[in-house]
Structures are given as C-alpha cells and as structure tokens.
Amino acid sequence: MGNMMDTVAQRNILLLRYQRRFVKMDSISATTTMDYDNYEEGSTSLTTEMLDTICDKSSVRAFRRYYEPPLYWLIVILGGLGNLLVVWIYLHFRNRLKTMTDVYLLNLAVADLLFLGTLPFWAADAVNGWTFGHGMCKVVSAVYKINFFSCMLLLTCISVDRYIVIVQATKAQNSKKLRLLYSRVVCVGVWALAILLAVPEFLFAHVKIDYEGNSFCTMVYSGDQNNRIKILVLSLQICMGFCLPFLVMFFCYYVIMRTLLQAKNFEKHKALRVILGVVAVFVLSQLPYNSVLVMEAVQAANTTLTDCNKVRAFDITSQVLKSLAYLHSCLNPIIYVFIGVRFRKDLVKVLQACTCSQGKQSKVPGGPKKSSVMSDTETTRALSL
C-alpha cells in the first residue's frame, strides 16, 4: 500500500511539473506545443509524452550523438557491401532464380539495402537534430518500417520454404515450377503487407521540438490521452516484427532438425550448425530490443516508471538494443547466402573472371548447363540457403 501511495504521489508531482512547463513552453514555439493541444488542465493521467517533456533528456541526446553515428555508418558500409554483392551475384547469373529461396533472398537483399538507406538520416538526426523537413520525416520513417517488416516476413518465408523442401522433398520437387511462381506472388504480398503495417508511420511521424529548441523526428500521437494508439502500434510491431516470424521459424527449423536426425547418409552436423546459427542470430539480435518494446507498451498502458533517472536509463538501453537489432541487416548476407556452398563457388568464379584475361573470362560459367545454380536437391543436401 505504501509503494502505491508513493507512486501516486510521484505522478501528482510530475503532473504539476508538467503543467508548469506546459505554460512555459507555450511561448517557445507553436510546433513545440503541437503534441499538447488536447491536454486538459487538471488531468490525472500521466502519458509517456508528458514524461518526455518533464524529464531532462540532454544526457540521452548526448549519448546518441556519440554512439549512433559511427555505429550506423559501420552497419551501412558492411551491410551495403554484403547485400550489393548478393544482388550482383544474382544479376550476373541470370538463370539463378530457380528456387523459391532464391527469390526470397534477392528480395531480402533489396529490403536490407533500402533499410540501410534510412540509417544515414537517423545518424544525422542524432548529431544535428532533424533538419530534413516534416515530409522527409514521414517518408524516412515509413521506408524504414516497410523494409523492417518486409525483412522479417521474408525471413519467415525462407524458413517455410526450407521446411517444404526438406520435410516434403518429393512433393516440393514435383511442384518446382509452380512453387517458383508462388514465390513471386508471395513477395508481392509481403511488400504490400509491409506497406500496410507502415501506415502508422505516415500518420504519426512528426518533427518534434523540445523545450530546449532541439528538433527530432519521432512518433507523436496527438490527442492519445490514454496511449491507446501507441500501445496498438507497438503491439503490432512486436507481433508482426518478432513473435510471428519467431514462432514460424522455430516450428519449421524444429521439424527440419528432427527430419535430419532421422535421415541416413546426410551431413547432419553441418546442417544442424547452420540451423542453430540462423535461429540463434535472429533471437540474439531481435529478442532484446523487442523486450524493450514490450516494456515500452506496458509503460504506455500503465505509467509505472516515473523516476526521470530510470526513464533516461531506459531510453539509452533502448538505443543500444535497437542498434543491435539493426546489425541483423549486416548478418543476413552471411547467414542466409554465403553459407551456401554453391553461392560461394559462384562468387569465386565471378571474382576470378574480374582478374583474368579476356580470353579466360569467356570460360566463366554463364549458360544453363555450366552454371552452378542451386537446385532444391542440392540445397537440401547441405542446407545451403
């Protein structure tokens, strides 16, 4: 009972501080107070937006200024090189797109590249604030979310395809051409669903100015007094961006592992290492940040975190774990492509073609018979994604 009374007292103190700062902020800028137009004096509910206004976040912004830009640029460089190489290999071997996973991997590389293209904007935002305008804030936020969701959904599609190829090998081989057609339809559906899931970014992404005059691009839920919209948006991201992909991947790879353990004359150890690596990297990169999103949704539903020091620590932790999740874009080419034996051979041959004479270049496999395109059977034997 005592702890509950202390929490209520803290909320009342913070609400009083908010009312005082709200009056002071009115003279700074019309944009500054755009989030609080619907605030009713005497309200007893404390929203997360109010906490952002009450608590001094200068230390959080200083951390972002020194932490995010170098890390984001490193992710852009490494992820860009890896994914551009993937696209280049697929375009060089024109007849390479012969399996569903090939189509998914090409779309995954494109989605990763578009996702990485948004990171320089966030790096600049961390250093100088948002200087690209209100429209670009919406566009960059939406493009980021579109490619985030498309990446997660494509990873889910890859796990389903590997399940079909390995667990239902005979059926998969008989319906190879039909499945290839389905894969292109599925990719269109994935991009359409990702665009739909990014609609909140188009609606709620705004350039926000704090009481110190710092501008930054963020989600602003105007008039959302009880944080219902924010909770819905966060829940949608957690479910579609982690829970659904994780559950599907876990089921598919669990059945695949059980099938491989029962198989004879199969390179079990290598295949099992690949599976464990795929699942482990996905969980280790995505689970921590999604745990923070769950805590953020709980905080929005019931503002129990009212100490400004804890709020600042939570924000810094969120930034660190979010950057860890971004690293997945660098690791996708390594995990889902370069572990493939056939893909590595194609890469070596392309690199050899670049260093050889014109006469030797003509010997580089390019025709249907000589190309080392992965077939479903070959992919199954070594689990070369």
TrEMBL record:
Coiled-coil blocks: none
Molecular function via GO: C-C chemokine binding; C-C chemokine receptor activity
Organism per entry: Albula goreensis
Record region (Disordered): 360-385
Domain of life: Eukaryota
BP term (GO), one: positive regulation of cytosolic calcium ion concentration
Residues that span the membrane, as ranges: 71-91, 103-122, 142-160, 181-199, 231-256, 271-289, 324-343
Polar residues bias: start-end ranges: 372-385
Residue ranges constituting the G-protein coupled receptors family 1 profile domain according to the UniProt record: 82-336
Family per record: Belongs to the G-protein coupled receptor 1 family.
The UniProt record lists the keyword Metal-binding: no
Membrane topology classification: Multi-pass membrane protein
Entries under SUPFAM superfamilies matching the protein: Family A G protein-coupled receptor-like
Protein name per Swiss-Prot or TrEMBL: G-protein coupled receptors family 1 profile domain-containing protein
InterPro entries in the cross-refs: CCR1-9-like, Chemokine_rcpt, CXCR4/ACKR2, GPCR_Rhodpsn, GPCR_Rhodpsn_7TM
Keywords, ordered alphabetically: Cell membrane, Disulfide bond, Endosome, G-protein coupled receptor, Glycoprotein, Membrane, Receptor, Transducer, Transmembrane, Transmembrane helix
CC per GO annotation: early endosome; external side of plasma membrane
Subcellular location: Cell membrane; Early endosome
